[in-house]
Write a structure and sequence with these properties.
Blueprint lengths: L5 E7 L12 E3 L2 E5 L6 H10 L3 E2 L5 H13 L6 E8 L6 E3 L28 E5 L14 E3 L11 H8 L7 H45 L7 E3 L5 E3 L2 E5 L6 H10 L3 E2 L5 H14 L7 E6 L8 E2 L30 E4 L11 E4 L6 E7 L1 E3 L13 H13 L17
Parallel strand pairs: 1-5, 13-17
Antiparallel strand pairs: 1-3, 1-4, 2-3, 5-6, 5-7, 7-8, 9-18, 10-11, 11-17, 12-17, 13-14, 13-15, 15-16
Length: 414
């Protein structure tokens, strides 16, 4: 039975630069904080909420994989971390702290879990425990294990529980009145605490907004805000678009160029890892493939990217037995490259040469959009949180972005 554990918390962040506060890590549009101290589930959640977030809600396999990876990197594989999952009072179902029920298709219980044999605490919070197997990887991402802190029922002392077991004891009217008064006083203190916390958080947000306004008025001396247009995903200083329709390699490239980019050029292992993970999540069928900007159309066996740079063999990720230039589908063979493997490719090797005329989905790439934000001088300071929020929305609407995008060369024949 576990007395306490560290915890993982998350919160959404929609700031203009998609950054997280100090001590938080950004991933997938959320900010994560990994505690270094241990406490009960209730105390851990209170700490998260005091930081403006909550215990983490895991709602995708990709997010579970990210958390597992971070725990391995932190050398915390033997530790247990609280997450925001809790059993209902009737022990009939599990639900997250935002009130949503646990999606049974996205559960990652360890073997023989959840196990309700230990303890009697009806809150039954779920803790995250990483048990690494093989080469430092948890088998099939099954990371969650249930545990309960050894404590009395919240709000009761051990003596009162013992008194409960004495069926002959009676509660006098005076004690009942004192109990009601105590509950009302505790509720009032909680309300006051929450109000003070909200006031402090509002002041901090206003200060951050003012600091950001000053930086923008000084032409963003700390660097421009990196953004991607709607429908594009930002990663590593680039913007990526994953098509939902299928077309030939040439048509896919034309569509990418019409959007201001080109078929993706993969020039690092880190970029391949990012794309491999996204492709696995986006594949609807096991045979789905995504065109990338690599072809040997100009000269058989001489693979070139769409910017006319040759393939660096250090950063090639061919599937076993590829490329093989089969001519069974079309006489011209296989001169264009797509990536796939829904179940995950060993060592990120997911490239496959394919006939250029076969319709596949595609990955477009272009440089991030950088801009300079200009603000009009405010005529007066807002005197309330509502006025400050109105000012913030007004300033956001007055942003003026000047886009700068990278250019790409033109490869062999389209």
């Amino acid at each position: 039975m576990q007395h306490g554990a560290a915890y993982m918390s998350s919160m959404s962040y929609n700031g203009p630069c998609d950054r997280c506060e100090a001590g938080w890590e950004h991933h997938g549009g959320k900010c994560y904080h990994f505690s270094i101290s241990k406490s009960s589930w209730n105390r851990s959640r209170a700490d998260c909420r005091a930081k403006g977030g909550d215990l983490v809600k895991i709602d995708s396999r990709e997010e579970q994989k990210f958390l597992e990876k971070r725990l391995r990197e932190m050398n915390k594989t033997e530790e247990k971390f609280w997450i925001g999952l809790k059993r209902s009072a009737d022990e009939d179902r599990w639900f997250w702290m935002d009130g949503s029920p646990l999606n049974k298709s996205l559960t990652f219980w360890s073997r023989n879990q959840p196990d309700t044999r230990n303890g009697t605490n009806r809150e039954n919070p779920a803790g995250q425990s990483v048990r690494v197997g093989g080469k430092g990887r948890a088998p099939d991402l099954n990371l969650s294990t249930m545990s309960r802190p050894q404590s009395c029922i919240e709000g009761e002392a051990p003596d009162s529980q013992h008194a409960k077991s004495n069926k002959g004891s009676k509660v006098t009217k005076e004690r009942a009145a004192l109990l009601v008064s105590g509950v009302l006083l505790a509720a009032a203190l909680i309300v006051i605490y929450r109000l003070l916390f909200e006031i402090m958080r509002t002041k901090e947000n206003l200060k951050n907004l003012e600091d950001h306004r000053m930086k923008c008025e000084n032409n963003l001396t700390d660097g421009p805000c990196d953004r991607c247009e709607a429908g594009w995903e930002h990663h590593g200083g680039k913007c990526y678009h994953f098509s939902i329709s299928k077309s030939s390699w040439s048509q896919s490239r034309a569509e990418c160029r019409a959007k201001g980019g080109d078929l993706v050029n993969i020039d690092s292992r880190e970029e391949q890892r990012f794309l491999d993970g996204r492709v696995r999540n986006l594949m609807n069928e096991a045979e789905d493939q995504f065109w990338i900007g690599l072809t040997d159309s100009a000269a058989e066996g001489r693979w070139m990217w769409v910017d006319n740079t040759p393939l660096n063999e250090r950063f090639s990720f061919w599937l076993s037995g590829e490329p093989n230039n089969l001519t069974g589908i079309t006489p011209e063979g296989e001169d264009c490259v797509a990536m796939w493997k829904k179940g995950g490719a060993p060592d990120l090797k997911s490239w496959n040469d394919s006939p250029c005329s076969v319709p596949h989905r595609s990955i477009c790439e272009k440089a991030e959009v950088t801009g300079q934000i200009k603000y009009e001088e405010a005529s007066q300071q807002a005197s309330s949180p509502e006025q400050n929020r109105s000012s913030q929305e007004s300033l956001q609407n007055k942003m003026d972005f000047t886009s700068t995008r990278g250019t790409t060369g033109v490869p062999g024949p389209l």
